Amino acid sequence: MYATNLLVLFIASFFFAPLRLWAQNDPPPTYDLAIDVFQVLELPLNVHEAALSKSEKGGGYVLTLSLSNSSELKIIGLRYSLVSIDAENKVRFRVNRTEGFSILPYKTKSLTFKTPIRFKSNGERLVLMLEQVISRESIWEVVKAKEALDAYARGDYSVMPAVLRVANQVDAPPVTDRPRY
Question: End-to-end CA distance of the chain, in Å?
């Protein structure tokens, strides 16, 4: 009886050995922090699937997100703010950054911004808001963005910020239909 059980275990180990080897080759788990997104509907750029991923180089996190352009203009950059909300509902501003990229009209693009964001995460809720969107022809600026983001983070979803659209005088393409003397 003992020899039969030993023989069964020996034969079964050959069948399950590939499963053990397969389980050992799994990549290490990623430690992504999910981010809530405060969408400003008047901006031509929408954010989807925002997350902070551990940076491969040193400490900190990198911002990974998917953007969709809903305008007829090529978008070349944005400015965003990131806040954290702790268990006591205390809002803390973490980052306000400007990032450059290129996204064609009516297209979607997934991006990872390589500039690390350094902070210690203690299980806080993170909220991201776009404050400015830049194209060569226009700049969309959220009016009173900090106040709107603060209200959203505290649970007041009725505050919808206004967006001001102005001509981009810096990045505008040169006018070529003028005569040159």
Answer: 106
